[in-house]
Write a structure and sequence with these properties.
38% helix; 9 helices; single chain; alpha/beta; 8-stranded parallel barrel; two-stranded antiparallel ribbon; TIM Barrel
């Protein structure tokens, strides 16, 4: 079986676009990243400027120079594709459409997004609105260049997507018309009640994922430790090895044949100095290999 050399494993972090969207690539290169996640615009605002041809060209040139692959955008936290508020739902759909357009202009591989939240309504109704919202995006992703990744959530508040069954419900109703997939956040997964502290725990969780969703739909990981306990349904990221999950979990993630080669993006506290160390550490873990 082919194994990617450790220096080519796709490991990175969510880097800054301050100074231009291309800056995220430069910052990524400076910390030894081979992949990155970024915001394509200010994620605290509904309206964002479009990506100019000059910006897109510069981004693609820098990406070629840095050899950073599988760049992923993280959509705005304001977006709720399952909102029961008509005005908020309209704004969310428009903002998500614009995110797809910007990401496509930059030639990104993935758009990671939180499915939505069932504020003031039932979970079932929210799930159906998320599906409808996504199906409205078909014409903007028909070239198949950018894949939409549902991010697993911690289940905080009324957020959708903390159970594999919820993610499967959305995926099953959209994958025939849209390029879809899943991004598992290790902190969210743990806080949602899926224990991943040991190799045995991980294998059991991945088997459940495969049974309910299908392992072929897993395209990315957010790699974060957790300040909170398993099943707490509270989203609080911690640096690797400094939370309740522990380093054994991340050693397994980097060495297990099923998960080793899947792109991984750090969202841990500490910024670039810490990410530099954590990327190096994850690569060291990747030297081992288990089936």
């Amino acid at each position: 079986m082919h194994r990617t050399p450790i220096d080519q494993l796709l490991i990175g972090a969510h880097t800054s676009i301050a100074g231009g969207v291309h800056h995220a690539l430069i910052e990524g290169k400076s910390i030894g990243a081979t992949t990155i996640q970024l915001f394509t615009s200010n994620q605290r605002q509904w309206k964002s400027k479009t990506i100019s041809e000059e910006e897109a060209l510069l981004f693609r040139e820098i990406q070629e120079e840095t050899k950073i692959q599988k760049v992923m955008s993280h959509s705005s936290y304001l977006i709720n594709l399952g909102s029961s508020n008509p005005e908020n739902l309209l704004k969310s759909r428009e903002a998500f459409r614009e995110e797809i357009i910007r990401s496509s202009a930059l030639g990104l591989s993935f758009i990671n997004f939180h499915p939505g939240a069932s504020v003031g309504d039932t979970k079932e109704a929210c799930l159906d609105r998320i599906v409808k919202s996504l199906l409205m995006m078909e014409e903007y992703v028909e070239d198949g260049q950018v894949r939409l990744l549902l991010e697993s959530t911690a289940g905080q508040g009324s957020s959708i997507g903390y159970q594999f069954e919820e993610l499967a419900y959305i995926l099953e109703r959209t994958q025939a018309k849209l390029p879809m997939g899943i991004c598992l956040d290790t902190c969210h997964l743990f806080c949602a009640g899926y224990d991943i502290r040991t190799p045995q725990d991980w294998k059991r969780t991945l088997e459940e994922f495969d049974k309910i969703i299908g392992i072929q739909h897993l395209y990315a990981f957010h790699v974060n430790d957790s300040e909170k306990e398993c099943g707490s349904r509270k989203d609080r990221h911690a640096s690797l090895g400094e939370g309740k999950i522990g380093l054994e979990s991340f050693k397994f993630l980097m060495s297990y044949s099923v998960t080793r080669e899947i792109p991984k993006y750090l969202e841990t506290p500490g910024g670039c100095p810490m990410w530099d160390k954590e990327i190096w550490m994850l690569r060291e873990f990747g030297k081992n290999y288990t089936r």
